[in-house]
């Protein structure tokens, strides 16, 4: 069939029109859509099992198009296993994934006249460790699955994620060169010169945002990182930093908001300015604004002035990198102390004249601006006539007169004051100046309440003049009322948690008295307790919550009139501290003592965080020594059997994975390194009527290279009888021991270096009528005696001996079983008993608190399995 040409053209037109309509309709639908986030469950790496993807709205319809990529790394609160129950934390909690999910992310950005749309990937990490390899694996996964423009890969993240973005690219140059730009937001990280050098060599653009009122480490570390990086970076990749003027950790809401811009760009447009191979185009900025401060005038002999350019400002997107001061004109004298600082001193301005100084301010892009300031130096001769009208005064009616005093006025050098003239400048109609031409005069008749201003004019013999004013405030009798004063405002910093409120400065009206005081809290946190609300002066305790507290004082007179005043107490948090590790005080022990306690419980977390873990390690020292519990805040180190210096390090880690370190030194002295030793001789037993003994401390020994300077004997315990013949002699007699019982004597020896040592000896005085009875005077022996045991079956050693507060008992030998330890006084009284198990042959160590025992000598009885017994003696200092 032959087709009509008109009909054929009509069909083509209809098809063409329909196709155009279809394309326009699809385009309209695409650009009216919003990007969405969709979960992807994939075994990307051991620590990433799921992530959210957000694809451009035209991704499916442009199969050949490649797109820029943003990888968003969430914070520690979004960690999880990537499952369907935990992955939603990534988009629900905060940051870029949440912005996209809420429809706040634009579908395209226009930079340099070209439109871009982003692929956004937001992974969930299961741990804050090993993230460098995890990011490598994630990048490989993304490149294999998505059509990305590999010249435009950007990393961003908040808190922990911001630290990941920084540390990943700073790990080495090769990793940094994969990335076109990073945007760490309130990052949890620290910078080093090595990291900064890697970023510089890779020419990686970086923009850090953080709140100035965040925990101190965050803005401090961010600024430190930028400072280190700027040492290496060229102006084409100058790093940016934004300090938001707000408190708290949330800098991400502002950062990721597309309406927030710096230097004319939001963070997404800033990313698109940079690409690998693009040469990193420079963002054009304005030069800085230089300000050299206000002009100044000084009069010799004053010859110094301060130059201040700290009011200078950088344009958006830049920072001031240097200042340079120089003298433009003026006399030859004058030296600039520091020409390269914003604020500096000029000294030696010893020649009168006009000096002009210029400051040159340069920003980090190399642009500069200048400003000048003029310093006028007057000679001493130009010091002019000065009028002084005296201090302002306040009086209360019926008092109605004051004295005006201009005698403090001074003439210029070489001149004299010829005349004085007082006039009233303003105020009520009352008041009469008694002698207006005198330096000092009375004003009387000030009977109307109000403010009076009087002017003094002084004239020199050269007819030069100067003026000054003084204000007189006259209060009506009605205003002389009861006045409440609550004291000065105060500021404390936790853990300080109490202040004193002082209303004792309150004053009654004339002729009345203050009858009562009443303190109340007007506003502030819930903490704080007023100790005595009805006292003029009282304490407020328990101010444990940081904040501003306002307290009101109400005073009542005997006429029932009242007055109130308030005082503000500002309680600052310990915040201002970061995570701090404390490993305790250095310690010294002497063999055979071979164990110490390491104590890191004094470590403190940063405000709003907690300490997650402790880790003790030995840094240096002999091979001996075993840490019992390396992951505890407080632990024992035993087996320090080799003399030397041991250094242990404590590492504390917060719940945000920040760390802090501290060290403690343990010095172990060998037994050979003998210190001053006191020896009081052997214990003695006498039976009445024998009533005297000889105490012998001559066996005491000084430390090598020293000598014993003095001896001192004192009785520590026992009956009231007995007299020491010569308490300051090494050897002395004790007589008059006429009362039966146990006497304990202490010997104190002092070296020529004033070090001291102590020893103890007991004297048992038995009554004349009977011998000492073992069943009442000594601990009861159970089972076999010491002599019936082979030497290696059971041995007992007490360490240290003498003891002060803690006694360690070392029990060694083949025997095992239920073990009983008993401590007796020398008179046979049982003072302490403990039971425990000796489960295996060999050595066990048990520690006991003996701080409650008084000084003296005690018997320690150890019984194992009900039949093996050892007895030892211990001295308590």
Please tag this protein with its features.
single chain, 4-stranded mixed sheet, 52 strands, 877 residues, mainly beta, 13% helix, extended
Please characterize this protein's 3D structure.
- With 877 residues, the protein is mainly beta.
- 13% of the residues lie in helices and 40% in strands.
- α5 (160-171) packs across α7 and α7 (193-201) crosses α8.
- The longest helix is centred in the N-terminal third of the chain and has 28 residues, at 5-32.
- The protein starts with a helix and ends with a strand.
Q: What Rg do the Cα atoms give?
A: 43 Å
Described by the principal axes of the CA atoms, the overall outline is extended
Instruction: Record the strand order, biggest sheet.
Output: 1-2-6-3-7-8
> How many beta-strand runs?
52
Count of DSSP helices? 11
Oligomer: single chain
Q: How widely separated are the two ends?
A: 128 Å
Spans of at least 5 consecutive residues with low confidence: 5-32, 278-284, 770-788
| Class based on secondary structure composition and strand pairing | mainly beta
Largest sheet: number of strands, sense, barrel closure: 6 strands, mixed
What's the average pLDDT? 86
Strand content: 35-45%
Q: Give the helix level as a range of percent.
A: 10-25%
Provide a concise account of the structure shown:
The chain has 877 residues and is mainly beta.
SSE layout and pairing:
Elements: H1 5-32, E1 38-45, E2 48-54, E3 67-73, H2 89-92, H3 95-101, E4 109-111, E5 114-116, E6 119-125, H4 131-145, E7 148-158, H5 160-171, H6 173-176, E8 181-185, H7 193-201, E9 207-213, H8 217-232, E10 240-247, H9 252-256, H10 267-272, E11 296-299, E12 305-308, E13 320-329, E14 335-336, E15 343-347, E16 353-363, E17 368-378, E18 393-396, E19 402-405, E20 417-426, E21 432-433, E22 440-444, E23 450-460, E24 465-475, E25 490-493, E26 499-502, E27 514-523, E28 529-530, E29 537-541, E30 547-557, E31 562-572, E32 587-590, E33 596-599, E34 611-620, E35 626-627, E36 634-638, E37 644-654, E38 659-669, E39 684-687, E40 693-696, E41 708-717, E42 723-724, E43 731-735, E44 741-751, E45 756-766, H11 774-777, E46 795-799, E47 806-812, E48 817-825, E49 830-838, E50 844-849, E51 856-864, E52 868-876
Parallel strand pairs: 3-6, 3-7, 7-8, 9-10, 11-17, 18-24, 25-31, 32-38, 39-45
Antiparallel strand pairs: 1-2, 2-6, 4-5, 12-15, 13-16, 14-15, 16-17, 19-22, 20-23, 21-22, 23-24, 26-29, 27-30, 28-29, 30-31, 33-36, 34-37, 35-36, 37-38, 40-43, 41-44, 42-43, 44-45, 46-47, 47-50, 48-49, 48-51, 51-52
């Amino acid at each position: 069939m032959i087709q009509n040409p008109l009909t054929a053209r009509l069909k083509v037109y209809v098809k063409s029109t329909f196709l155009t309509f279809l394309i326009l309709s699809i385009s309209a639908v695409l650009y009216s859509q919003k990007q969405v986030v969709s979960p992807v469950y994939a075994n990307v790496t051991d620590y990433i099992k799921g992530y959210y993807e957000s694809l451009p709205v035209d991704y499916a319809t442009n199969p050949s198009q490649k797109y820029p990529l943003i990888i968003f790394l969430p914070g520690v609160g979004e960690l999880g296993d990537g499952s369907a129950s935990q992955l939603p934390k990534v988009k629900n909690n905060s940051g870029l994934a949440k912005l996209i999910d809420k429809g706040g992310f634009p579908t395209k950005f226009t930079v340099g006249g070209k439109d871009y749309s982003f692929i956004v990937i937001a992974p969930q990490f299961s741990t804050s460790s090993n993230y460098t390899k995890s990011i490598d694996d994630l990048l490989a996964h993304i490149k294999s699955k998505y059509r990305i423009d590999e010249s435009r890969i950007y990393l961003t993240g908040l808190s922990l994620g911001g630290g990941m973005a920084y540390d990943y690219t700073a790990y080495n140059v090769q990793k940094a060169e994969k990335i076109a730009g990073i945007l760490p937001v309130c990052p949890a990280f620290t910078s080093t010169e090595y990291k900064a050098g890697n970023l510089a060599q890779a020419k990686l653009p970086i923009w850090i945002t953080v709140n100035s009122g965040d925990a101190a480490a965050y803005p401090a570390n961010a600024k430190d990182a930028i400072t280190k990086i700027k040492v290496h970076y060229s102006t084409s990749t100058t790093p940016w930093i934004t300090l938001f003027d707000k408190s708290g950790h949330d800098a991400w809401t502002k950062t990721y908001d597309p309406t927030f811009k710096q230097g004319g760009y939001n963070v997404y447009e800033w990313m698109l300015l940079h690409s690998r191979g693009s040469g990193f185009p420079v963002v054009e900025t304005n030069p800085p604004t230089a300000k050299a401060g206000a002009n100044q005038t000084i009069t010799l002999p004053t010859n110094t002035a301060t130059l201040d350019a700290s009011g200078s400002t950088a344009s958006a997107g830049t920072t001031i990198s240097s200042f340079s001061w120089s003298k433009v004109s003026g006399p030859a004298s004058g030296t600039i102390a520091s020409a390269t600082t914003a604020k500096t001193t000029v000294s030696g301005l010893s020649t009168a004249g006009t000096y002009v100084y210029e400051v040159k301010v340069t920003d980090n892009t190399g642009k500069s601006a200048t400003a000048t300031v003029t310093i006028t130096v007057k000679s001493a001769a130009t010091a002019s006539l000065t009028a002084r009208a005296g201090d302002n005064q306040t009086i209360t009616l019926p008092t109605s007169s004051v004295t005006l005093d201009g005698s403090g006025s001074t003439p210029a050098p070489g001149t004299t004051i010829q005349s004085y003239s007082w006039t009233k400048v303003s105020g009520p109609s009352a008041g009469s100046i008694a002698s207006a031409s005198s330096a000092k005069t009375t004003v009387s008749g000030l009977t109307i309440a109000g403010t009076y201003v009087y002017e003094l004019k002084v004239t020199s013999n050269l007819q030069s003049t100067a003026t000054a004013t003084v204000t007189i405030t006259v209060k009506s009798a009605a205003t002389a009322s009861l006045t409440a004063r609550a004291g000065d405002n105060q500021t404390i910093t936790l853990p300080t948690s109490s202040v004193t409120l002082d209303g004792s400065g309150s004053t009654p009206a004339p002729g009345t008295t203050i009858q009562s005081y009443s303190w109340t809290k007007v506003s502030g946190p819930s903490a704080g307790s007023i100790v005595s609300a009805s006292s003029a002066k009282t304490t407020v305790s328990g101010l444990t919550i940081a904040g501003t507290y306002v307290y009101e004082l109400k005073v009542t007179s005997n006429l029932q009139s009242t007055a109130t005043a308030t005082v503000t107490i500002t309680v600052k948090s310990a915040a201002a501290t970061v995570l701090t590790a404390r490993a305790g005080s250095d310690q010294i022990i002497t063999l055979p003592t071979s164990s110490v306690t390491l104590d890191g419980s004094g470590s403190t977390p940063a405000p709003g965080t907690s300490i997650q873990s402790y880790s003790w390690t030995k840094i240096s020292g002999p091979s001996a020594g075993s840490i019992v519990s390396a992951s505890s805040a407080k632990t024992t180190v035993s087996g320090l059997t080799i003399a030397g210096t041991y250094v242990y390090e404590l590492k504390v880690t917060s719940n945000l994975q920040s760390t802090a370190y501290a060290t403690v030194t343990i010095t172990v002295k060998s037994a050979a390194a003998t210190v001053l030793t006191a020896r009081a001789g052997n214990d003695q037993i006498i039976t009445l009527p024998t009533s005297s003994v000889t105490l012998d401390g001559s066996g005491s020994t000084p430390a090598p290279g020293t000598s014993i300077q003095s001896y001192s004997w004192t009785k520590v315990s026992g009956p009231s009888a007995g007299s020491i013949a010569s308490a300051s002699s090494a050897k002395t007699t004790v007589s008059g021991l006429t009362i039966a019982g146990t006497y304990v004597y202490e010997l104190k020896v002092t070296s020529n270096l004033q070090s001291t040592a102590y020893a103890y000896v007991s004297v048992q005085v038995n009554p004349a009528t009977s011998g000492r009875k073992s069943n009442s005077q000594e601990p009861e022996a159970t089972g076999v005696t010491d002599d019936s045991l082979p030497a290696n079956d059971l041995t007992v050693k007490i360490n240290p001996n003498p003891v002060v507060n803690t006694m360690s008992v070392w029990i060694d030998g083949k025997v095992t079983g239920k073990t009983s330890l008993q401590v007796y006084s020398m008179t046979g009284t049982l003072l302490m008993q403990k039971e425990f198990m000796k489960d295996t042959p060999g050595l066990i160590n048990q520690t006991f608190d003996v701080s409650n025992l008084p000084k003296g000598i005690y018997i320690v009885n150890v019984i194992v399995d009900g039949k093996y017994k050892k007895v030892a003696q211990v001295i308590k200092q």
